[in-house]
Amino acid sequence: MRLFPALFLIASVAAYAADSQQPAPLRGYTAEHSAAESAWEQKFRAMPDAARLRENMQRLTARPHHVGSPYDKNNAEWLLAQLKSYGLNAKIEQFEALFPTPKLRKLELLGADKFTAKLDEPVLDLDPTSNQKDEQLPTYNAYSRDGDVTGSLVYVNYGAPADYERLEAMGISVKGAIVIARYGQTWRGIKPKLAAEHGAIGCIIYSDPKDDGYGQGDSYPDGPMRPADGVQRGSVMDMPVYPGDPQTPGIGAVAGAKTIPLDQVETITKIPVLPISYADAKPFLLALGGQPAPNNWRGGLPITYRTGPSKAQAHLAVAFNWDRKPLYDVVATIPGSTLPDEWVIRGNHHDAWVNGAGDPVSGASPELEEARALGELLKQGWKPQRTIIYGFWDGEEPALLGSTEWVETHAQELSQHAVAYFNSDGNSRGLFGVAGSHSLENFINSVTKDVEDPETKMSVWKRARLAGDLGRDSDARAEDRNRADSRIGALGSGSDYSGFVHHLGIPSVNMGFGGEDEDGGQYHSIYDDFYWYTHFVDTDFAYGKALAQTAGTMVMRMADADTIPYQFTDQADTVRNYVNEVKKLSDTMRKQIKDRNSNIAEGAYAAASDPKKPTVAPKVDAVPPYFNFAPLDQAADDLTAASSEYDKALGSHPAAGAKADAVLMGAERAFLDPRGLPNRPWYAHMLYAPGLYTGYGVKTLPAVREAIEQKQWPVVDEQIARTAAAIEREVEVLRKATSAISAE
Hints:
Blueprint: H1 13-18, H2 31-45, H3 50-60, H4 70-85, E1 89-98, E2 101-109, E3 115-116, E4 141-142, E5 147-155, H5 161-169, E6 178-182, H6 190-197, E7 202-206, H7 209-212, E8 234-235, E9 273-276, H8 278-286, E10 313-321, E11 324-334, E12 339-349, H9 357-379, E13 386-393, H10 396-399, H11 401-409, H12 411-417, E14 418-424, E15 430-436, H13 441-448, H14 460-469, H15 474-481, H16 498-503, E16 508-515, H17 530-536, H18 542-560, H19 569-608, H20 630-652, H21 658-664, E17 688-690, E18 698-700, H22 702-709, H23 716-742
Parallel strand pairs: 4-8, 5-6, 6-7, 7-9, 12-13, 12-14, 14-16
Antiparallel strand pairs: 1-11, 2-3, 2-10, 5-10, 11-13, 15-16, 17-18
Helix pairs in contact: 2-9, 2-18, 3-9, 9-18, 13-18, 19-20, 19-22, 20-23, 21-23, 22-23
């Protein structure tokens, strides 16, 4: 998993002009402390070394290092030794989690033109680690259920909700069939989930060359993109219900933890699933009969894409070793000098599906360089005010295992002490991309103005701003000009921040560089290795260095501030936008349903007068009522007012310190509802969550938005009230923080 897709900063002209002016004191700092902090940060940013980044990657990617493999443990022990050599207090925290590995994989096309899929990625002579067959995990989808099924094939495009609506409109059912879906648009776990809900008995997911193969660039080894036999491994666990160890939901998977029986785990797929290459997929696609696929369903293969059903049946069989495997989280701590009970946390995972250069070592190597540089600063006399924790998580790839188990194990401590979490994952070359909690939006803007882009020599913030204006309409550019800070995206899922923000309400950031190379072509394949990365991605590690500089500066600036530098006016502005969006969604769906019902009625009337047409009209949908959005409107107004008053108070008293911090650490937690989201209580944040049917993609105001999207009209007003109450809890925290600061 990784930052996917990147969300790029789009800055305002007003802030752009300010970039060249005399810098004001950093937010949350006195003028004196701000100057000292800037000096330490400049020293830090001079320390990350591209040569060390390269050495780190070469060492960490030398062998496959998936969960439970010998080199996964070896890497954890090496990381521990490195951190200790930097003078840091480090340890390994061990957990245990369910991690199935395949013992049977078979896919056949039956009939006269029988074909058996290879299900294998070939060794390439020029790629020195592609031949480590005895250590590589085979191509499979983790947390698919066991199954042996035979049926006709139906092509479902990306297997998204809209694709099934289109099939229904075309009169095509997947009931009793094996679906074949291409990777892309939706997270892979949504594809078998929706297929099962529509009655399919199996799911095949293939990589179409239009999406990550020769349709995007030259195929490996001539270029960076996925070759004909390349396969994307990956988890299909239903993580929008809960991530982490499937057998210990909500509790840390430590030794002796009670596990639920395998047959009671709800996050394992309901049907068998298998990923394949486009070379293996082509015969199955050629076997499809039925209608030609819609234009936007057609991939890059030189064939006629059809919906099916197929002329011949397919046979899919998979079985797994349902073992529990050890996890090795490597955790280093730098004690805070004056505020040791306030924790600033930085993380990136170290496990991979195979060798994992792009995902995750391109992010883990910079994180290690940050830790080394901070160790050097400690020797020079720097002392962070707050405690800093560096985590290298295990088991992210299967199900965010290591970070989730760590968060669940330390939930009480983290809820009391955590100030912020800064995450990265894969990193490549190009623009800075970021998503996160909107109380940190202003903070992110301030840091990115101080880090130099290695190619253009302007700030990474300014480069993203200039690129972001390209292709934007005049209204969008005008909005940016009238806003002091650049907007950031919200956090869905896909990496280790999820437990921190969605479960515990810890303000979080996910960051990385990308967009100017074709790094996704070897995602989760055996070719995502040192040779591929150093020939086609961040070849000189310039952007690995930039990531270390950016993330490390964030950690330092947050740890050293006199008062936690949250800012809430950006948050209030964003919440107001979310409220307007769900109101518009309600109006749009009401109109669409009315129009559809009208068309159905007209069609039925015409059918009644024409004996050649069917006399039974399709079922009409209930038209949604007009919902009571007043509580959300009021809460958004209250948040706007409270955030403005807080800003004024902090501007007058930037060094309020621990008294204000004690209140401020409850700000993001205020958005938590202990009942959690409907049907998935692990996710407790009422502003952000991964979508139940998007996976990676975020749903903002998720309880309200998904109730409307799923046409659950009777519960919409209830979810509006719950969400408004969470925003009002945030308002109350800001009022208390304003009083605490003003009393200084």
